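pinging the channel bc i need a second pair of eyes. not urgent but kinda urgent?? the chain im working w is below, pasted from the shared doc
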Amino acid sequence: MIINGEGHILGRLASIVSKKLLQGEKVVVLNTDKIIITGSKEWAHKKYKQRIDRSSISNPRRMGPKYPRRPDDIFRRTVRGMLPYKKAKGREAFKRLRAYVGVPREYKDAELTQIPEAKRSPIRKGVKLGEISRLLGAKF
C-alpha cells in the first residue's frame, strides 16, 4: 500500500498505518513533510524540542533517548509508539514500514492512496511536519 501523506493528520494516519502493519501489509508513506500536526505551531515545536533535549537533562554524558528531527523519522517513531515494538511481532511489523520526504523516483508513477478517515478537516489549525523539522534543525 502506497499512501500520500499530504494533508493527513499525524496521529490518525499513524494509527491506521500501524494497524495495517500488524495485519502483515507493507506500507510506504510518501510526502511525510506535508503531514499535519493539529494545534498551534508553538505548542508542537515545544513538544518536540522537549523530547530532543530530554537526553541532556539528567546526565549529559548519557546519550539517550534519541529522538529524530527529520519528518520521515518523526513519522516512523510515531508509528513505532503504536506498535508492540518490544515484542518480535511489533519489530517485524515496523520493518515493513517505509517513509519518505517527497516522492522518490521508484514511486513517481505509482498509484497513491488517500485515507479519508485521516484527512484534515478545514476548520482545524495545524502545522506541517516539515516546518517543525526545520525548527528543530533538520536538513532535508
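so The chain has a mean pLDDT of 89. and The helical segments are 10-22, 41-53, 55-58, 71-81, 88-95, 129-136. — does that match what u expected or am i reading it wrong
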